[in-house]
Amino acid sequence: MSAVLSASDHGELTRSNDRDWWRQAVVYQVYPRSFADADGDGIGDLRGILSRADYLAALGVDAVWLSPFYPSELADGGYDVADYRDVDPRLGTLADFDELVAALHERGIRIVVDIVPNHTSDKHEWFQEALASGRGSAARERYIFREGTGPDGSEPPTDWTAAFGGSAWERVADGQWYLHSFAIEQPDLDWNHPEVREDFLRTLRFWSDRGVDGFRIDVAHMLTKDLRDPLPSAAELAAMPIDGTHPLLDRDDVHEIYAEWRRLFDSYDPPRTAVAEAWVATDRVPKYASPESLGQSFNFDLLRAGFDAAQFREIVTDNMSLAARSGSSSTWVLSNHDVFRHATRYALPLIEETDESVPNRHGGGWLEAGADETVIDRAGGVRRARAASMFLLGLPGSAYLYQGEELGLHEVAEIPANQRQDPTFFRTHQAQYGRDGCRVPLPWTRSGSSFGFGAGGAHLPQPSWFADSSVQAEEEDPSSTLSLYRRAIALRHELVADEDLEWVETGRDDVLHFRRPNGWEIVTVFGPMPFGLAPDSARRVVLSSAAIDGHLVPGETTVWLAGG
Length: 564
Ligand code: NOJ
Description:
The chain contains 15 helices and 18 strands. Helix 3 links the parallel strand 2 and strand 3. By secondary structure, it is α/β, with parallel strands linked by helices. The strands form four sheets. Strands 9-8-7-3-2-1-11-10 form an eight-stranded parallel β-sheet. Strands 12-13-14-18-16 form a five-stranded antiparallel β-sheet. The chain starts with 25 loop residues before the first strand and ends with a strand. It binds 1-deoxynojirimycin (NOJ). 1-deoxynojirimycin binds next to loops.
């Protein structure tokens, strides 16, 4: 199977010569509002990303995935889209977008954008029209409106719960209710409606024509729904198998949509790529990842696992055979904009193995609101995160990185309630922190206004410890996490070969060792005890923590050995 651009190809893209660039790409996720702020209004923007294009090139990534940058009221961090074919004026203009695409392409970096098809913003012109046109109108048919229950219809149609807490239905002024699987401000679209289908094709063409190389499809498993009356209760829904016939989730008919999208993607040269964010049972992933469908699907198993050798090995083995079944490549993710950063997950206290249901070591838990933060082992968390990331970057398949993980950033827990933004925090009555802590604007410099994020403030407060994790501080330190990522990503261009690996038995439960077909070897020690390795220090090209002795891999460390 052909691999990503080799180091010598890295440079300006030849637009049509590599259909398979995505198979083993390093894709770096930018959350635009928190990456870099060029105009000093406290919100990151497209020109901010443009100003950091050289940083992305120095990091060596193959592609940048932009989370939504479209006009939005920010009820859900931009995943409430008011116009799919424009740029939020606070983030820039379409001309800025074109400039950014050109700047990335000049540096050999592809660009992937986020498409949010399950729901629009309630500020989208279609929803505004639906509200204005009233019950029974054609405008309401693009969404999912129902009458309420109870004598006066004042109860929601069902007892379903939205993903961010509270009812999944919201009542409008004339008494009807609409479905929102996520925030109230995110009404679900009705994908039976031909205009909905047509409009998304237009959107995909719009961005493809502007030079976008691929798409990340938000909650790809939720678009189609069977909402015939009588609607089932939440308990009835929960008891139904999710086997392609469930009324709300992972329905087989969603693939009719993606087959149509695939035809559109394949009409471009090179074909546009897509990756599904599909939270589905393992055996159903290949449907989304097949070449007739989106072509690739996220696998979040590592992100949900503890820092544990047995779990990592099983996940890698399972996902590689799954990818082979669809003809796709595996995807690996440890962090994104929706979860606690992995440095912090791995910093939480060790969970003892009490029974089969708690097999985790570090990283089995999530920081809850009100948790005792003094128990967080920050240094240990970063050490384990570095080891896990180097393990991930050594694997065949595509590596999805989240902005700031290359700095070893921790989750920011210390955000006052009145500055939090995530609907999860409010809809759970502050019981869950939600996702603001991984979306705090990045620190670029040790000091200065918003640590170099921009000339003004930052839309979420940055902690003082950001100084030592800033790009400036880490660029000066050859042992920093940033230096480690840069080195590993540069070497990865040599390491990627056939999409295969062979496990080498280590005789220790807490040590994983695999060999790539070109002879490169990766060894990760998950436990605290060092592991003895045949002495061959010349082959040791990446080490995720300080060396202790040429023959030993320190505890909680990954080493890369170059091909012999
Ligand atoms: C998944 C996105 O990653 C998340 O940020 C968003 O809140 C939901 N989909 C709803 O769009």
